Amino acid sequence: MSLISFSIDSRVARIILQRPEKLNSFTRDMAFALQAVLDECAADPAIRAVYLTGAGKGFSAGQDLAEVTDPEGPGMNIILKEHYNPIVRRIRALPKPVIAAVNGVAAGAGANIALCCDVTVAAASAAFVQAFSRIGLIPDCGGTYFLPRLIGWQKASALMMLGDKIPAAEAERMGMIYQVFPDEVFAERSWQLALRLAEMPTRGLALTKEALQQSFAQSLEKQLETEDILQQQAAGTWDYKEGVQAFLDKRSPTFRGE
Ligand code: LHQ
């Protein structure tokens, strides 16, 4: 069976991490397969949102710890460089919204890949674990970048050091994730969110993503300049014209992602 399932439905690319018997923990092959489908999402203009979830009861338990201890397995010196950093870079650079639909436990690299997405939602029974400290590692996949920005330094530091398992509802309260849905409706509600995003002005959303990204590293003065530049690009899109015209016509806009 393929380690990643990939399909396109109603302009949304659905990516399913598929090693359920090992809580979708990442092997080298699975990391490469995820990179490949993210490349496909970037290249295909028909895809206007990406929905990332896990098969079975977990989202992802991070690195497969059997692979990492296998003497024939990939060395520590290449795992981040070749497996995970390229995944995080692809998600952040993708000019389309990426929704992480966290269906179950997300631990280690699995948690931090979920947190680097544009909109992260979870099923009520899901949980997030910065599992790294439990095995003597440091958080990776951009976790030391995203988590303190999401929930503040103190909580991020404590979670990363203690490795506590945080239930989805608490993660939502902390601001770690956007929303929690009851298990019974999670698949439907999270998918609806992806469908909604896929009908929005894709280029405007991509520019929003870029503006947010730049805000982390810039002064207010620089950020105002960035917004000016990116806003002019947004105003040059077909969807901007459609959005304004639809408002004036008192009708719903039909965006093309152009
Ligand atoms: C697993 C795993 C797993 C293999 C569950 N591997 N089999 C970067 C740089 C280089 C090296 C290392 O890694 C990294 C990035 C990282 O991601 S480091 C962090 C790696 N992940 C972890 O340390 C988490 C390990 N897993 C757990 O702590 C628990 O499984 C959690 C809390 C995620 C879930 O607990 P449970 O719901 O009780 O599930 P379980 O432990 O019973 O797991 C179910 C099965 O999945 C079980 O297999 P089995 O054959 O016994 O049924 C586990 O062995 C397997 N599994 N995580 N990471």
Describe the protein in words.
It is globular, with a radius of gyration of 19 Å. The chain has a six-stranded mixed β-sheet, sandwiched between helices. The protein folds into two domains: about 5-200, 2-enoyl-CoA Hydratase, Chain A, domain 1; about 200-250, Orthogonal Bundle (Lyase 2-enoyl-coa Hydratase, Chain  A, domain 2), CATH 1.10.12.10. The chain is about 50% helix and about 15% strand. It has helices spanning about 30-45, 65-70, 75-95, 110-115, 145-150, 155-160, 170-175, 185-200, 200-215, 220-235, 240-250, and strands at about 5-10, 10-15, 50-55, 60, 100, 105, 120-125, 125-130, 165, 180. Helix 5 crosses helix 6 and helix 9 runs antiparallel to helix 10. The protein is α/β, with parallel strands linked by helices and about 260 residues long. The structure holds ligand LHQ. Ligand LHQ binds near residues 25, 64, 109 and 129.
Largest sheet descriptor: 6 strands, mixed
CATH superfamily of the largest domain: 2-enoyl-CoA Hydratase, Chain A, domain 1
Radius of gyration (Å): 19 Å
Overall CATH architecture of the largest domain: Alpha-Beta Complex
The count of domains is: 2
Structural class: alpha/beta
Low-pLDDT runs: none
Q: What is the strand content?
A: 15-25%
Distance between the termini: 36 Å
Spatially, the strands of the biggest sheet line up as: 1-2-3-5-7-10
Tell me how many strands there are: 10
CATH first level of the largest domain: Alpha Beta
Ligand kinds: ligand LHQ
How much helical structure, as a percent, in the residues?
Answer: 40-55%
